[in-house]
Specification:
6-stranded mixed beta sheet, single chain, about 290 residues, 9 helices, alpha/beta, 2 domains
């Protein structure tokens, strides 16, 4: 195990360890640091959206829990790039809402959903690494914020309209610069590096420090974890190969057109990033 980090990856922890009630404190700590409110988990729920399939076994790991306020929290970790991931978030929220409202119940019984997404790819275009999305209604003409009436506040037990609608958190792990400036950053550092520094004081991390050590796993779990890491490396290798092949195909087409237009091989090498040997091979194919 000397070639492995001291602590397991958070996605593996969600798959195998954090579903146990005895370990809820770890998740509660993270969610408290993220949302800024004390979170207490009542139960792990089964949902159509968090069933493990062959396609999602390595790329995606998710967990659905209910807190002591009756809110649903989706915690999802995505390892591979997905262009439509924003809409995947919307689908997951919609599924959770519809699965946990009983037939015939009034709409006031719909549970609030908090969607927490930890992604290991560049999602969208933005400079930050933690984003929060909420729903507000603002007047087109007067620019005023629409508010709940006093009777609606009593019915829902909420003060603001945005509290009724889903909250979405995005943590773009790879964009984090490894400088932990606050307690939430300490969690993001752990997500990125599978390491908990002795100086870290974020809620839940001290418990994670002990319970998520690789050396504390039973022998069979350590072997399963090794296999999981190898599968992740294999998936990443396949994705990298496909990306390179796609870029080469595009580059080859640029070279073909460039050669036909009389551009020099050295210029085409600079434009496409292809090697002189690759460009020479394309040129020979054109001469056949």
């Amino acid at each position: 195990m000397s070639n492995l980090k001291q602590h397991i990856r958070f996605d593996w922890a969600i798959k195998r360890i954090l579903r146990d009630k005895a370990n809820f404190g770890i998740l509660e700590g993270f969610l408290t640091e993220l949302t800024g409110e004390a979170v207490r988990i009542e139960a792990v729920l089964e949902s159509e959206s968090n069933k493990v399939t062959e396609d999602s076994k390595f790329n995606r790991v998710d967990l659905l829990v209910e807190n002591d306020k009756g809110e649903l929290l989706i915690i999802e970790i995505q390892n591979s790039h997905e262009l439509d991931y924003f809409l995947r978030i919307l689908f997951g929220i919609s599924k959770a809402i519809t699965e946990y409202v009983k037939e015939g119940e009034p709409y006031s019984k719909i549970k609030k959903v908090i969607s927490v997404n930890i992604v290991y790819f560049n999602l969208g275009h933005g400079e930050d690494y933690v984003y929060k999305g909420t729903t507000t209604f603002r007047g087109i003409h007067k620019n005023d914020a629409l508010e709940l009436s006093p009777s609606q506040k009593r019915l829902f037990g909420k003060e603001t309209l945005s509290e009724l609608y889903p909250e979405i958190y995005l943590i773009k792990v790879n964009q984090f610069d490894d400088l932990a400036k606050d307690s939430l950053d300490e969690w993001v550092y752990f997500f990125k590096n599978s390491e908990i520094k002795p100086s870290f004081q974020a809620k839940g991390l001290r418990e994670a420090e002990e319970k998520l050590k690789i050396g504390n796993l039973p022998a069979d779990e350590q072997q399963a974890y090794r296999s999981y890491l190898e599968d992740l490396r294999y998936q990443a290798s396949i994705a990298e190969t496909l990306k390179i092949e796609a870029e080469e195909k595009v580059g080859a087409e640029v070279v073909r057109k460039g050669l036909q237009e009389g551009l020099s091989r050295s210029l085409l090498a600079q434009l496409t990033g292809l090697s002189p040997e690759q460009i020479e091979e394309i040129a020979r194919q054109l001469d056949r």
